[in-house]
């Protein structure tokens, strides 16, 4: 008799896991948008195609397994970069693009991220606090 009640519980738990991650990224995004940050640093960045990488200021808001980095270019333009479960998810929508045209990789503790035409190099320790 225990087999039948257990199966529905497993299914409910499996369905809830993605929504927990979504809630974490939402909470981290709300913290970033309100200016509540856990870490600050500088990162390599380029705003335009073909532009050499320069230096941008970065501020990171964390919540559970999610983090949102607000990266600000020298001209004052900012973009939010959203991470969950140590993976890069997307950037926020801006006048530069919708933030879903992305490529990324994690190599030697550096996230190499491209969102639309912008490129970023973010240390894993800055994003997740190691």
Tally the structural domains: 1
Secondary-structure-derived class: alpha+beta
Q: Which oligomeric state applies?
A: single chain
Strand content: 35-45%
Q: Uncertain regions: pLDDT < 50 for 5+ in a row?
A: 1-20
Major sheet? 8 strands, antiparallel
Mean pLDDT, all residues = 86
- Which shape, going by the Cα principal axes? globular
Q: Given the structure, what is the number of helices? A: 2
Radius of gyration: 17 Å
N/C terminus separation: 46 Å
What is the string of helix and strand elements? HEEEEEEEEH
State the helical fraction. Answer: 25-40%
Number of strands: 8
Strand order of the largest sheet: 5-4-3-2-1-8-7-6
General description of the model:
The protein has helices at residues 3-33, 124-128; strands at residues 39-46, 54-63, 66-72, 78-84, 87-91, 102-107, 110-115, 118-123. By secondary structure, it is an alpha+beta fold. It has one domain. The termini are far apart. Mean pLDDT is 86; it is low at 1-20. Keywords: Signal. Residues 1-23 form the signal peptide.
């Amino acid at each position: 008799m225990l087999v039948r009640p257990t199966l529905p519980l497993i299914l409910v738990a499996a369905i809830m896991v993605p929504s927990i991650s979504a809630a974490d990224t939402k909470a981290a995004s709300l913290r970033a948008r309100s200016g509540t940050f856990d870490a600050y640093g500088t990162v390599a960045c380029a705003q335009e195609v073909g532009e050499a990488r320069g230096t941008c200021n970065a501020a990171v808001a964390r919540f559970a397994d999610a983090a949102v980095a607000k990266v600000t270019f020298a001209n004052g333009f900012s973009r939010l970069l959203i991470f969950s479960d140590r993976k890069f998810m997307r950037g926020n929508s801006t006048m530069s693009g919708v933030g879903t045209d992305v490529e990324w990789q994690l190599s030697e503790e550096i996230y190499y991220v491209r969102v639309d035409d912008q490129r970023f190099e973010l240390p894993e320790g800055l994003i997740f606090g190691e």
